[in-house]
Amino acid sequence: MTDQDQTPAAAGSEQAPAFGLQKIYLKDVSFESPNAPAVYLAEWKPEHQVQLTTEVRPLEDDNHEVVLNITVTVKNGETTAYLVEIKQAGIFLVRNYSDEQKGPLLGSLAPATLFPYAREAIANLVQKGGFPELVLQPINFDALFAQHVKRAQEQAAAQASH
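Structure (tokenized):
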């Protein structure tokens, strides 16, 4: 009787849209302090530069790898104090969504899910490198994804007009 009750629900769930996090992992990480130990002795007036990109790669069984790449460069005057590069990754299940619906899930929601893990890893590396705490500010991944879509549309329109 239990099997009969679950069969229709199981069949329906096969067709229902599904989005889920399967795995989070640190794919690559690098910390460099090229001017240590002299950088620790100078007056500390840091300037931060943060670069962020994402990569999406389809895997088997409706899974996708999403990689959030963050590079933080901190200079003290003209001297590079430290450089942190991190690739925080995750495997996300995206089933029964249209390509149009998949875009925001993989281009915004997935990186937003990965960001707190990347931020924590960066903060830990900076602290272990002997520098004051670095807390990356929140990022609006919805706005970044919208900008990406707009640029892609503009490029497509420009190419079509030539």
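The chain is about 45% helix and 35% strand. The longest helix spans residues 99-128.
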